[in-house]
Amino acid sequence: MPLITVQLFEGCSAEQKREYAKALTDASVRVLGIDPGAVDVIFSDVKRSDWATGGVLWSDKPKG
Amino acid sequence: MPLITVQLFEGCSAEQKREYAKALTDASVRVLGIDPGAVDVIFSDVKRSDWATGGVLWSDKPKG
Amino acid sequence: MPLITVQLFEGCSAEQKREYAKALTDASVRVLGIDPGAVDVIFSDVKRSDWATGGVLWSDKPKG
Amino acid sequence: MPLITVQLFEGCSAEQKREYAKALTDASVRVLGIDPGAVDVIFSDVKRSDWATGGVLWSDKPKG
Amino acid sequence: MPLITVQLFEGCSAEQKREYAKALTDASVRVLGIDPGAVDVIFSDVKRSDWATGGVLWSDKPKG
Amino acid sequence: MPLITVQLFEGCSAEQKREYAKALTDASVRVLGIDPGAVDVIFSDVKRSDWATGGVLWSDKPKG
Questions:
Q1: Nearest CB neighbour to D50, from listed E22, E36, E43
Q2: Which of C36, C47, E23, F14 could lock F27 by a disulfide, CB 3.0 to 4.6 Å apart?
């Protein structure tokens, strides 16, 4: 406890996930006053062809 | 808001997901009276060897 | 299959959920060509004080 | 994107969640280089009587 | 690891959840050959008015 | 109902999942007194590079 699940577009590097897991854990420790070992982070990559906003898949949207 | 997560057997075509995301979003707009842009849909493909009903994996069931 | 999970702000009436479950199921049947009995919909109410966008809880945002 | 879901024991104050949502969002912005508005955080309170580790509900564990 | 999430109709007694968490953990230990302390179980109660099968909320279905 | 989601490290054999699904379903039937057909189990494989405990990805931890 806590368990943090992160759904994000695929494409994050291993290094980014390493840093991201650390940053989310640090934030949890700081705000909740808990031990880092109590924090689990699970990343779940989502393809742009599996995520829609406004009824349109991100794989179909023009890149900004 | 809302966030709609759909767990379904893998094998759906890109065209089906495109149409499905649109249909789920339209339903949300119609019932909740919200803006389409407020609706997120995330598809999560599940293998038949990762889903069991009645204690039996779907990959082990005879196809009807 | 499929399993549809809908996270939405609390405050939806029973009648809206009834209609919404029906609409999401109908959309699934139409797009996937499956039997309605194969579709599960689970609603999960989220308080505005439990959902943040842009780092700000919705309970803290001025109502538009 | 990303969508961050946090399952945590109930008992967090509104002020802690406010600060926590901000901290998780800031971490996301810093690591992923995205706009804060792209980050959603959803908190899901879990009762100690609904979470077990090692087969024992936390409500049954002696408090350390 | 593993993390087991159980969505079930509300109405389970505390004693049933206690026994259920133990049984799911025992099953995990037996099949995966892991330590019981590695197993987390989270129960999530769902109201019958929040779960639909076949487009009909369970709160609207005649009890069998 | 119930719906059991199991997040576990990838690497489980098909035979282990077959046995695990059966064991989780049996436990549910025994404790809840329900029909096996009412139990769904969904496995979700997680890479060690997608799961962190204590801020460290499992792919970065020395194997015990």
A1: E43
A2: E23
